[in-house]
Amino acid sequence: EPEVTQTPSHQVTQMGQEVILRCVPISNHLYFYWYRQILGQKVEFLVSFYNNEISEKSEIFDDQFSVERPDGSNFTLKIRSTKLEDSAMYFCASSQAQAGSPLHFGNGTRLTVT
Amino acid sequence: RKEVEQDPGPFNVPEGATVAFNCTYSNSASQSFFWYRQDCRKEPKLLMSVYSSGNEDGRFTAQLNRASQYISLLIRDSKLSDSATYLCVVSGNQAGTALIFGKGTTLSVSS
User: Is any Cβ of chain B less than 8 angstroms from the Cβ of A53?
Assistant: First the structure.
């Protein structure tokens, strides 16, 4: 069964540093997403991406965040200047085009900001 | 943003028990509904979609009441492997819009 893959599985960085989290969505999916989950809290939407542009973003997704699809397979989340409160599990997901399609999640990148 | 509310539990049940989880959502325009399962420190995995007429998948039955904005999940004959957090998930009204997650209900099945 095709799956979403994320790298790295764990990233440790110092406050103020830039990090890039990488994802390879399922190949025939057209919608891509980033979610995060702070330890013990709920899964929170960050951003959705379709046709090479952001289609929706949450209030969490401020100017320090950006997303990019640099080629035909990768989908990245960049955090420009990490804060302690950015420590969380970041999940990439993808879905097929039609409304009502469930999301398929990658196994996540655990980001630890020290 | 509209919210999804769930009883956090935990629900502690013996093997073989039947357990039911409830969920309410606030966005009346929501069109798609799902139950996901999340094991500790793992990604959410789709358990089942929820359809207006209700649907069943083996030991799992999901119900939707649009008028009350209420979703339920029934698990029959609980197994040890059912121990996990069950996430109620609701979408907006068009393709590509964000799925909104409830905080989840934790189930622990013991022998």
Answer: no
